Amino acid sequence: AQTVTQSQPEMSVQEAETVTLSCTYDTSESDYYLFWYKQPPSRQMILVIRQEAYKQQNATENRFSVNFQKAAKSFSLKISDSQLGDAAMYFCAYIDGNQFYFGTGTSLTVIP
Amino acid sequence: DAGVTQSPTHLIKTRGQQVTLRCSPKSGHDTVSWYQQALGQGPQFIFQYYEEEERQRGNFPDRFSGHQFPNYSSELNVNALLLGDSALYLCASSNRGEEETQYFGPGTRLLVL
Questions:
Q1: Distance between CA atoms of B88 and A41, rounded to whole angstroms?
Q2: Cα A37 from Cα B103, distance rounded (Å)
Q3: Which residue of B has its CA nearest to A47?
């Protein structure tokens, strides 16, 4: 069964510092997509970054980057120069065919 | 370009009642997926609709049913509500074959008393 594990229920970071959120997943597929979504208190799920498994290069979107280690089935999110607006729940997700599988989330607090 | 919209934003029901939640997909999208997000958990896939038919279903009982209309909008129906059905219900839209690009709506918060 496909599973996504986020082992850090809560994380905190000082404003302007860097934080890394961890995620591991389990799949027997060779080609798939991985995602990080942000869910602020407004509840809307916002796509932060996406990684295609067949691409060796780690995805980057401005201050957000991933460390994708396919063999280890690890997909961590690094947030650089953290801002107050980054405070939210962060969900790691994997897609298998038509269906998303989400982790349980990491609550990120940004300390001014 | 309107994104995914959902109605209502909040809803309170009592055990045993029935509820209908609505979703309008992002313009140009033809596929709608529904998710249940319990408090403190990640979203769980309920089912997906394409061409007015249920194409894939997660591990949810038959009390959860849906419908997709010709304009691609969708409804989620839950019968015989249980206290455990209290959750945020999220709708996501995409194009068939491009499910890796899903856009989520703001959700409907359902409270069952």
A1: 12
A2: 11
A3: B103
Give the residue from B41, B79, B13, B33 showing the smallest Cα distance to A95: B33
> Distance (Å) from the C-alpha of residue B17 to the closest C-alpha of chain A?
25
Contacts 24+ apart (CB under 8 A), A56-60: none
Task: Report d(CA A89, CA A10) in Å as an integer.
Answer: 9
Tens-place pLDDT, residues A27-54: 888 888 999 999 998 788 999 999 998 8
- Within a 13 Å sphere around the CA of B55, how many CA atoms are in the beta-carbon half? 17
| pLDDT one-digit tens code per residue, B46-78 | 999 999 999 989 999 999 999 999 999 999 999
The type of residue at B23 is C
Best mutation target among B100, B103, B109, B110 (most A Cβ atoms within 10 Å) is B100
Sequence-distant (≥ 6) Cβ neighbours of residue A72 within 8 angstroms = A24
What's the CA gap between B102 and B54, in Å, rounded?
Answer: 17
Q: Which residues of B touch A46 (CB under 8 A)?
A: 104
CA B28 to chain A, closest CA, distance in angstroms equals: 18
Query: What region, left, alpha or beta, does residue A95 occupy, with left being phi > 0 and alpha being psi -120 to 50 degrees?
Result: beta
Residues from chain A that touch B58, judged by Cβ atoms under 8 A, are: 99
- State the Cα–Cα distance between residues A1 and B5, nearest whole angstrom: 31
> Is the link from the previous residue into B8 a cis peptide, with omega within 30 of 0?
yes
